[in-house]
């Protein structure tokens, strides 16, 4: 230990030299949700105010409420909910599906997704650009990947509730739910009919269900 | 000119030194459609076989055939049609819309799009992830951008045929047409109903139109 | 419709659950030109203040003024002019060339370019790193790609004025015009001579034309 | 249905026009492990031979064998094991930790990681470049992110076995285990001592445990 | 010269047309260290305040102080020290190694490194993920590359002091020094022992040397 | 040591479990110059045939021959010369400048450059898109950055020969030498005059020097 004591002052010099480089290190960029956002993500919190809690998120430990028409719930931990992933190219969401639950057709414009089934049985599928469907019934522990931007869905095909986690290769993968995009806004029924070939009656019915107008 | 003759042998040495670096230059990577493809695009043609025609494409000079139900035609110049753009992060397509023509709701999973109207009037729109629609009637020379992966459409809202070019920030932006993805394959009607909330009768009708089964 | 009314409150719950994820979606990042800029582009406007006009630009509908020595005009719709493309990896510019018009040798340091000829005839060309020129006379509807960073030019080789659009795989492709870079500043004539092999008289003549000094 | 039959031939034309663009779509790039690999990942399987099984992996449904000195097992589903994620910027691994199990200090040179605890309790931690440790005891459902390239570890701090999934923002995140890198090869003991400040006896002891030589 | 005078006013018009595009050019993004930082780097200084000194750094012209226990000094010119490289994907550092000097095992989480030896002889090495070491004694003018995120070191193996420059493919490559990450903080000795297999005595000894606690 | 012997078989199991993940690690991608090239770089050599020499390059240890008209030599270590940097986003070149030596105006279309002066004095400069020149006389140890794609040059402004290293943020940064691009090929003199405003006599003179025709 004597030696240690002796060399400590010298090593400290070494540390000083290097510490300026450490200041340059951008190991992470915890989102400061109040600061300006840029194309690459949210601004970073000042290093001095970063805490371990910024890298930990407990919101996925709680089951989502599936008492709704789709008997399903999606709980995201994207950069807006989980600031620690900002700029790191990764995020995650929890999926709860009661018996008969459905996450309807949707896309993530900004990332591919890997789904891992933790409880129950889920029928998952995506449709490729050549319109070929890729469907699979996933048991506990199975994983399936849905490529970026393609329409996909999840259905609880089993007799018990199902739990899964969906990982994304972006901190802000986005989420566009097909039915909501078409029917949960004020797009004119006629325009939707023209651009989807759906019957006006069908469109009006779903607008009624989802709260759309026009 | 005498001087030039004198210094030529010396400069040639300079050229020789630098020419090895030129061999390293990957100015472009013209697609060799027959070679293995990778995540970043097609393999490159051997430099010696690259010709100016690889960088030029005349296919967009010809109007697409709009004698179809949507009265519209899309002619792409993506890397698969136009090998010169491979790896360069850019591509383009020609849109022809007869009076009443429609390019129905679709997405490009791999790129954002800028549409420029060259003839006629086009009503273009996209829907954001929060379900807000962004619609605009575009006159000749107007441009509109549709962000990557979001549902969008084009409709000829005028009294004459319309022509537009759509540029993409990828050599292979992809194209998923909503109706085709849902109705032009063998996805079970019941599964589509479950994941879109559409009525079975509506689904079967469109499957009939588009050639889908089940 | 009764059914719809019945299930509406339940679906609303579903919407609430998902709406937090929607807040995380970065579909787009409309440039806030007054806020700090970063390496990936301009800061984003607050989502609440984004309007459809941010995604539409009408400036390219107007012919540029070609009453100048090069008989040509370039009208850009880059992120600084067209904030909607910020962060989306795409932008566009309008080229007007009167008879005999020329866009002289230039580079775009940040993106490759696809040129589409809409009216007239344009002789376009680029020079590769191995000094090989790639030239083509483009008719209406023809397209040509110029790889990122390489010297290229456009000349109206026809008997009528020409119109083209140039698309770029970046929202801020940049533009360095060779003659301006060399002769439209205060670089010493001697230094330019040394680094270009041009004669001093030639340099001084072009400095005179373009407003350079020294 | 009659109407459908009538318009079918016309729509087919539309499909033909678009199908060439579909050929250009690179929705995914399932790894062909036998073909040449490039910097962006493995070569793609021919589209015609892609099957749904390429996007599904069942290997994570089986508990890893924790009958080893660290009482832990890591089962990866990276591109080399799960070809469907190739080029999609995402992958996943299963972690099994028996009571007292440890995944020792390691880095992933190519990606950040999000850990989600599915069973049991895990103490996870990483050390930042400024040497600050970030430690947290994670319960079921908790998640924690470890930024790219930083040293991190997982320890089962509970009284039951633990199960977790680690997601990565790359199809090939890499894995460098500190002890293996230092002691499980033929690096000379003296050189390790010089570059780690560890005592030679300590180095030789761990070389013995891990099978290193010299 | 007359001709020049004549055409000047016309060319000026050309310049005006193009100058708006020049405003859009993001040639560089000199770091404004006081403004918010984002995932892609520091905010940019206002163009008007950029000066040539932003692109030049003289700090590497001075030898680092090697009067310390490792007989070595690292002087970085990363974005935090050299604002001109911000956003440009490149940075550099100076390495001084006295006789017997050592830069101990470390990683750069954010970039690969090319080392060029300018004076003396350096033994450099990295360890790959499969634990294979790659070692080489480098003479003046030799270069060696260490791939991103892998453990590597440099040792002055010669009889004179050595000087090298390390280039990085990132403006903020980061630097995690193994010994500092393990021993220069308050990580509990027991936890380090558990996650490194090192003996507690060894850990305590190095904590003593480096200033760690617990 | 007994303990070590005892636990070795168990740890070996641990190693086996992890070794499959190691196979997935793409630490590096040493260029196989004979295999197909893609947009992201050269194909990778098979891991089994990678050797330390792939990561080391001695070609920069030898002074380039400056007995030429520019009294300068550039020796690149790009991916084509130094396969170890392939895919790693970094490369380097050696610059030798005799007294009065000049590296004339050139661009690197694919990367920014950091120049470090090792011997002598170099006047370096680049021109930004707004035509502003940034010039600096660099002494030994000084560094200067030239942003991607911008015209820049180096001149030996001192009384002794100069040596520098240029680092690039790409394994294949490219190199377009202005004079060679304009005058060392068969571009018609008239076309060059039209697109550069240079006089035909000047063009013909330089074509004569550099070996251009037409």
From TrEMBL, chains A, B, C, D, E, F:
Q: Where does the chain bind Mn(2+)?
A: 106, 108, 113, 152
Its localization reads: Secreted, Cell wall; Secreted, Extracellular space, Apoplast
Annotated disulfide bonds: 29-44
Which SUPFAM superfamilies does this one have? RmlC-like cupins
GO biological process per UniProt: auxin-activated signaling pathway
Primary localisation category = secreted
Q: Which residues form the signal peptide?
A: 1-23
The Cupin type-1 domain, residue ranges: 58-204
* Keywords of the record: Apoplast, Auxin signaling pathway, Cell wall, Disulfide bond, Glycoprotein, Manganese, Metal-binding, Receptor, Secreted, Signal
Q: Which GO terms describe its cellular component?
A: apoplast
Binding residues annotated for oxalate, in chain numbering: 108, 113
Q: Name one GO molecular function term.
A: manganese ion binding
Family annotation (Pfam families): Cupin_1 (PF00190)
Function, as annotated, reads:
Probable receptor for the plant growth-promoting hormone auxin.
- PANTHER family according to UniProt: GERMIN-LIKE PROTEIN SUBFAMILY 3 MEMBER 3
UniProt similarity note? Belongs to the germin family.
Q: What is this protein called?
A: Germin-like protein
* Gene this protein is translated from: ABP3
């Amino acid at each position: 230990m004597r030696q240690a004591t002796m060399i400590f002052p010298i090593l400290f010099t070494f540390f000083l030299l290097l510490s300026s480089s450490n200041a340059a290190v951008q190991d992470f960029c915890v989102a400061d949700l109040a600061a300006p956002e840029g194309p690459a993500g949210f601004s970073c919190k000042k290093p001095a105010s970063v805490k371990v809690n910024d890298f930990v998120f407990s919101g996925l430990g709680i089951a989502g409420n599936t008492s709704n028409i789709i008997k399903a719930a999606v709980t995201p931990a994207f950069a807006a909910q989980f600031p620690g992933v900002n700029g790191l190219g990764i995020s995650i969401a929890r999926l709860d599906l009661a018996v008969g639950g459905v996450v309807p057709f949707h896309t993530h414009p900004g990332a591919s997704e890997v789904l891992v089934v933790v409880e129950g049985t889920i029928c998952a599928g995506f449709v490729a650009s050549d319109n070929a469907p890729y469907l699979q019934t996933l048991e506990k522990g199975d994983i399936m990947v849905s490529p970026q931007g393609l329409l996909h869905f999840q259905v609880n095909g089993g007799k018990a509730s199902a739990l899964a986690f969906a990982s994304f290769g972006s901190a802000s993968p986005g989420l566009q739910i097909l039915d909501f995009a078409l029917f949960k806004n004020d797009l004119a029924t006629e325009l939707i009919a023209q651009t989807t070939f759906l019957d006006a009656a069908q469109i009006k019915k779903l607008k009624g269900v989802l709260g759309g107008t026009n």
